[in-house]
Amino acid sequence: GKMLYFGSWDRHLYAYRIRGQRRPLLQWTFAADDQIVAAPASAGSLVIVATSNGSVYGVDRKTGRERWHATSFSRFGSREYFYATPTVAYGRVYIGNADGTVYAYGANSGHLLWARQVGTYVYTAAAVWRKTVFVGTWDGNFVALDARTGNVRWRYDAPSSITGAPTVLAGLVYFSTCGRCGAGGL
């Protein structure tokens, strides 16, 4: 309603009051551990944001203070990037990572609830509908996961990379592919 939250490549999450002001008024900034390349998500009293260092933060929407911090699995000391916007549903944060894993964290605690390898890079936000999480991967996998357990419900092999976030309308799942990218690309 009154606030605008956004992340930046300068490693900060910003909160601006936009309603009732002549110009946006900075309320607070939060310093993260790396670039924030995807949009934040709202989860009750928290703003959820992810970084290029493989971190996910739950930040108090009123004060800008960190309430929790979680990380992806790092392999061999390397960092894993979160390029995807977090999706919040059922008291959980679902987010895909460049390591090809979809993670589910408790929205209020940041505790890792499950992690499921689904393919190569997951660049976009997940869609959630009827306790199912839908994600696409760079190597052309489109996967439906059980929102509670992370178990694979079904998988579809697309002809090329899935680079757009899926959506569900009237019970149908839609997603787009990039015919010139990744798997199947020219």
Give the helix proportion (percent range).
under 10%
Overall structural class, as computed from helix and strand content, comes to mainly beta
Which stretches are low in confidence, meaning pLDDT under 50 for 5 or more residues running?
none
> Radius of gyration, Cα only, in angstroms?
17 Å
Mean pLDDT: 92
* Largest beta-sheet details: 4 strands, antiparallel
Count of β-strands: 17
Q: Characterize the overall form.
A: globular
Ends: how far apart?
44 Å
Number of helices: 0
- SSE string: EEEEEEEEEEEEEEEEE
Proportion of beta-strand residues: over 45%
The main sheet orders its strands as 4-5-6-7
Q: Can you put this structure into words, describing what you see?
A:
It is a single chain. The strands form 5 sheets. This protein has a 4-stranded antiparallel beta sheet with strand order 4-5-6-7, with no helix packed on it. Strands 8-9-10-11 form a 4-stranded antiparallel beta sheet, with no helix packed on it. The chain starts with a strand and ends in a 12-residue tail after the last strand. The protein is built from no helices and 17 strands. The protein has 186 residues and is mostly beta strands.
Looking at this protein, list some descriptive labels.
186 residues, mainly beta, 4-stranded antiparallel β-sheet, 17 strands, globular
Furnish the topology, listing elements before pairings:
Blueprint: E1 3-7, E2 12-17, E3 25-31, E4 41-43, E5 46-50, E6 55-60, E7 66-71, E8 87-89, E9 92-96, E10 101-106, E11 112-117, E12 127-129, E13 132-136, E14 141-146, E15 152-157, E16 167-169, E17 172-174
Antiparallel strand pairs: 1-2, 2-3, 4-5, 5-6, 6-7, 8-9, 9-10, 10-11, 12-13, 13-14, 14-15, 16-17
